[in-house]
Amino acid sequence: MHLVPRLGSGIPLVARTQEMRRLRAAFARAERGEAGAVLIAGDAGVGKTRLLTALGEHVAGCGGLVLTGRCIDVRDGGLPYLPFAEALAPLGSSADPAVSAAVRARSALGMLLPQGGDPRPAATGDHGQVSEGEREGVRRVRPEQDLGQLQLFDAVLGVLTEVGQEQPVVVLLEDLHWADSSTRNLLSFLLSRLRAQRLLVVGSYREEDVHRRHPLRGLLSELVRLNTVEQVALAPFGPADARAFVAALAEEPLSPDVVADIAERSEGNPFFVEELLATGADCQDLPAGLAEVLLARLERFPAETRRVLRVISVANESVSHAALAQVAGIGDLELDEALREAVQHHVLVIEGGFYTFRHALLQEAVYADLLPGERTRMHAGYAARIKSMPQGRGHDAKLAFHSLESRDFDTALAALLRAADEAEKLGAPGAALRHIEQAQSIWDAVAPENRPDGVNELKLLSEASYFAGTSGEPERAVAYARSATEALNPDASPEHAAKVWRRLAETLLTLEGTFDEAVRAIERAWELVAEREPSGARAWVLASRAGFQRLRDQPDEALSSAHTAVADARAVGAVGAEASALVTLGTLADSAGDAGEARERLREAEQKAHDAGALNVEIRAMYFLALSYDDQAEMDLALAHAARGVARAEETGLTWSTYGLELRARLLYLRYLSGDWPKEDAAGRARRGVSSAVAARILANWVLFLVGRGRFADAAKALPGLRQQWMADLQIAMAAGDAAIELAAWRGEHSEALRITDELVLWLEKAESALLGGIRIVALAIPSAVALAAEARAKGDQAAADGFVAVGRRLLAHGRRCAAEGHPRSGTMGPEGRAWLARMEAAASALEGLADPDLWAAAAEAFSYGAVYEQAVCRWRQGEALLAAGRAGAAEALEAAHSVAVKLDAVPLRDAVRDVAHRARVELSGVEAVPARPQLNPLTDRERDVLERVALGRTNRQVGEELYISEKTVSVHLSRVMAKLGASRRAEAVAIAYDRGLLTVPE
């Protein structure tokens, strides 16, 4: 992995705007003669040096003098005045006569600033040490013992004051937690006498190292009382900023899971981020260098303190005093002293009476440093204590963890199975899956007689498949289900075998390309119970089989199977199976056009599933109920039911189950249509640990928002990865393909939009999917064919224009074929499909010449069912068409489009509407009236827009990003501008335009 420069050498100050603003404000006051000081506190590696470096760069850029000094960690003896000696050294060798005179006038500085010598060794960095030789090299600048402190202190303050009269001075003092007593005294003197000097003193120290008995602690409490001193607490990055920092630091793209993992493990500490990234793409192992840095802090602690820290590291959680006493095996008094030492030095923190490491990475470092034997013994000690404790939440999971690590597999196996059951009840299928997989890994290590009753490998495989499917890992669910069918014992009962085959069929249904195998699996399950008496297993198989028959477009067979399933289920009291069959009956009613019956069946199914605890069936019923309203474009009710379903899925831990995912994705798309656009990127991210296909299902819908808001760089970054997931889910292809077409069109890359369209149409035809998807694709793409044809006509290339018209006609024909041959889920095309069909026809009306404003008005009206954004796009096009046709009403259409675009922050649409209004001299609400342009202006509006941004110093790429056109198109516009103005360079073109009044000088 390649990294950008390391911290302190160019890494952006992510999320440090507020701190930098305070520092710059303090410097601005110093420039005015209001001296001050800022004390910056923060953990090691949090970015104090980088912040001071940025301040120094700002001060130097403003003409100020920056003097920097650093304290170093010297264990044997002190280094008096070291940071001041280093900071003031440049004054002693300055070529400025005024500075030299100021230094010579203060003889007390002579010993602090020896001639021809660097007062300190080379910089050691934030975490380095110095050698004995280096210490001796520093000691030679120690002042004579008889040098009075007051004389020296006055000399330092005087020279800084006098130099400040020529230029403002900023003194940066780093790592004050290592400062000796002489340095602390000089610092106290200096800060207490800050008045009207043009001087700012900024010091940094590690908060974690300044414990209660640290000598700097008392000084800080005194200094902060001074009116001229302020404190800045430099905290680690928050989660969002930490993720942004990780992404910025890594040159190669990282998956969202890796980015989130590094951000979480680093706890927002920039130095930790950098070190974790250095380990490679997976970033799982703690880097040796980082471990050494972390462990170095503990070397000075007494042996008992280090022992207690090792015991806490094994717990992997917060630990009580009683647990530590039992596992560590030391007396209460010794334990108290050891804990007090660690707490005072900010290694441990107390949370609710329990002890835990302040940094999780420090816990990792301590744990990794354990010997194998002591690690095993300590885990065994924790396991023994947990066994003696009463049962409670998490009891079995903790016992399983420590038993596994201490190699007590007999205890671990039973505890893992109990922990999996608890996790399922708590709605945590991901945790349940991990427990089951761990149980599988030690199954063979446990003697048969020591295994829990009623558990075998087939049961473990079946449960693993179920938990994988409900936690967002469908591929693993299928793999486990297949293994379960292979592990079936020939002596297994038909009902049990049918359950295993039914499970395989349902898991296969979640993947693309496995439908035929799924059909074979459900038919195999049916063969096993077809001739059996009614039973719960038979009812479940029938209910599932009915669903498959509906998907195979066999409504009569599906209806028969569903009714039989209901009868069987009621005969044996299998309420969950009955609810599953009722869901299928509801969807069949929807397909038959009877929405009333469909919703009645689905509500009944939801209630029965809820009462029976059949959670997946309940979520499935809620999904199809929301879809029923969605099909009829009853937007408010569709949104309400989708949101209710998402909430229920989250409540039961089924967020990433098959229908939990579908509900979440559908709700996101409904919010896009209705204009309820989320501002947080978290809305477009799946949780960590789900499969890439599941994550892509959500991201594909989120990219529509990114494009709509003009976040083209973010959208372009996401689309290639989504393209790789087209085969995983049809809905990924549809949403991501639509977003890609719109992105290319907004950028003016119309040929690319048509290329993506052809690729998507071909892919959908192979997938045998049509209707709404195909119509929408064509409706989005035809305007690009229109634009290319118009451009070709403007160039006088009629042949090319005819070719693009032919492309548009071909797309139109495809869209009409989709409308004629498609099979809507509800039997007839719904309002959304009809709206896209109207938009397709309106777009195609411009292929031969001017667009038909009446068709665009009809399209806008068709989207009035609640598709706010799409309706606004149609109003924009309607306004354009009305203006081109010389008809009235354009202002109203553009105003309607503009108000929606502003509300949604839909930047590309907003700017497109404003561009039309600008050219037509139409005033829009909230937009200043367009001043009259000079007559005989040879530049087009677009050329003038480009030149205005060039005049502001923008590069071609930046101009393209602001105007939503390609960099190449910007270059073409500039070439035309220079040709029209007779200029040979960009700057010359700008100058000529100003001279001729073609551009207005900005105020």
Automatic annotation (TrEMBL):
Q: State the UniProt keywords alphabetically.
A: ATP-binding, Coiled coil, Nucleotide-binding
Tell me the segments the record calls region Disordered. 114-138
* HTH luxR-type domain location: 932-997
Q: Does the keyword Flavoprotein apply?
A: no
Protein origin, superkingdom = Bacteria
The residues forming a coiled coil are 588-615
Protein name (Swiss-Prot/TrEMBL): Helix-turn-helix transcriptional regulator
What organism does the record attribute this protein to?
A: Amycolatopsis albidoflavus
